[in-house]
Automatic annotation (TrEMBL):
Region of interest (Disordered), ranges: 1-32
CDD domains membership: C1_CHN (cd20806)
Keywords: GTPase activation, Metal-binding, SH2 domain, Zinc
Domain spans labelled Phorbol-ester/DAG-type: 171-221
MF terms in GO: GTPase activator activity; metal ion binding
Record's compositionally biased regions (Basic and acidic residues): 9-30
Highest taxon listed in the record's lineage: Eukaryota
InterPro entries: C1-like_sf, PKC_DAG/PE, Rho-type_GAP, SH2, SH2_dom_sf
Signal peptide: none
Name of the protein in its database record: N-chimaerin
Length: 467
């Protein structure tokens, strides 16, 4: 006679039926009875204990210092969905690799009807979420966090307020860093030059600066918070902004693919740019670091004869509607060259209105001459020429700065090449100094294709107008 209890699933059957399971709990088939409800009520009111939500899937790239609690690279929303399945239980946790910041790990924990997320670190065979307490196992870490929650009635989702103050007062820990993509200094806004060790990155908050700018950023480092978590609570009486027109871009006009693109959309909304100029349903790619991890070369070709132009790494592209008076789009896209035109953010709307006007012509201006239009195939050069505009992000109240660049088709043989006036230093290693600019006086030889947007944290950024 078998000793196996009736209605009891084996571990193999559980694995086949559910790829995720609480290690400390086994469920019976009749779990919907009064015993289950009583058990659930006792668990909610009892002293919380760690409950590891184990991943039963085989993950080929699982780090050796993680066990069944590791679920691979999943977004925050997926982690919350897993932890909230069958109701939130105090103490249930899992570990995941950040979907937005590959290489970083997060501890997701349910407590008090909420799901909290912590940046998890591993060093010298110890786990920690700050630099003051180290643990031999993740279970020990979770036990300590739960013990803290028992005495703190109001959990804010990160760390106690007194701990936050101590963390903010920590100095920056800068180390030389090699960037795989174009990168700009978050203090002066200048480009980080070089092939390797182009700049200095703070190991605590991820701040990227020139070596010469390190001494100017101050000593307040948000060490326990990632760059995406450095939020400032928006007060009810926040800085007033001009009302957004009904026809202007809103936060839900586009379908952003990442957090950076969402921020760029909010900057367009801040500028009150009419949405009628954009192909909102078109493919509007983002070229941030997270979205361009597999890019091999930052260069592309276009036109006949073909000309090189930069991939707009670090920017977000929003495609414009075709101009009715322009040549057929298939002719333009296959034979014309692509380049960038720097703009002042506050002049974008007026420029689009003039380019999309039906009476657009190549006539002389009132002064009797055609204005010289200067474009460049280099996104680095376009970034240098594009002024930055400071604003307050409507989503989180953080001080931001934004830039805009027009990506446009330019007709071959309608322009001349020239060097940057007054500059003897190399601007872009991929383009010769004598051909860094394409200039023309023919307005109709330029057809707008897309508007590029770039935003950055302006907490440490110093602009000339601020000095």
């Amino acid at each position: 006679m078998s000793n196996r209890l009736p209605n009891r699933k084996t571990s193999e059957e559980i694995e086949r039926s559910n790829p995720y399971a609480d290690v400390e709990r086994a469920k019976d088939d009749g779990s919907e009875g009064w015993q289950s409800h009583m058990l659930h009520a006792l668990q909610q009111n009892a002293t919380p204990e760690p409950i590891c939500l184990a991943c039963m899937k085989k993950l080929p790239s699982k780090p050796p210092f993680f066990q069944d609690e590791f679920h691979g690279r999943i977004p925050r929303e997926k982690a919350e969905e897993l932890l909230s399945a069958n109701g939130l239980v105090n103490g249930r946790y899992l570990v995941r690799e950040s979907n937005s910041c590959p290489g970083d790990y997060s501890l997701s924990l349910s407590y008090g009807g909420r799901i909290l997320h912590y940046k998890l670190k591993y060093k010298n065979e110890r786990y920690f979420i700050d630099d003051k307490k180290f643990y031999a196992s993740i279970t020990d870490l979770v036990v300590d966090v739960l013990s803290m929650f028992r005495v703190i009635k109001d959990v804010d989702g990160q760390v106690p307020k007194d701990e936050k103050k101590k963390a903010i007062s920590c100095p920056h820990e800068f180390r030389p860093h090699s960037y795989k993509h174009f990168k700009w200094c978050e203090f002066c806004g200048g480009f980080l030059w070089g092939i390797r060790d182009q700049g200095m990155k703070c190991e605590g908050c991820g701040l990227d600066v020139h070596s010469r700018c390190m001494k100017h950023v101050g000593e307040e480092c948000s060490k326990n918070l990632s760059s995406k978590e450095r939020r400032i609570v928006v007060r009810k009486k926040s800085i007033s902004t001009s009302p957004i027109k009904q026809s202007s871009i809103a936060s839900d006009t586009f379908k952003p693919s990442c957090e950076y693109q969402e921020c760029c959309v909010r900057f367009l909304a801040y500028l009150n740019i009419p949405s009628r100029y954009f192909e909102v349903d078109a493919l509007n790619p983002c070229y941030c670091e997270d979205c361009c991890v597999d890019v091999d070369t930052p260069l592309c070709k276009s036109g006949d004869p073909p000309q090189m132009y930069s991939l707009p790494t670090g920017w977000c592209r929003f495609q414009l509607v075709p101009i009715s008076s322009a040549p057929e789009s298939n002719v333009v896209s296959s034979t014309w060259n692509l380049a960038f035109l720097s703009l002042k953010p506050e002049e974008v709307t007026s420029m689009l209105e003039s380019k999309f006007a039906e009476n657009q012509s190549d006539d002389m201006s009132q002064e009797g001459y055609k204005p010289l239009i200067k474009m460049t195939p280099s996104i680095i050069c376009a970034d240098l020429d594009s002024p930055k505009l400071k604003y307050i992000d409507s989503d989180n109240g953080v001080s931001k700065a934004g830039q805009v660049v027009l990506q446009a088709y330019i007709e071959p043989y309608s322009y001349q090449m020239m060097r940057r006036p007054g500059s003897t230093d190399e601007i872009d290693p991929y383009f010769k100094m004598d051909t860094i600019y394409w200039v023309t006086r023919q307005v109709t030889s330029i057809i707008p294709f897309a508007l590029l947007v770039k935003t950055m944290d302006a907490t440490y950024l110093k602009l000339e107008r601020d000095l």
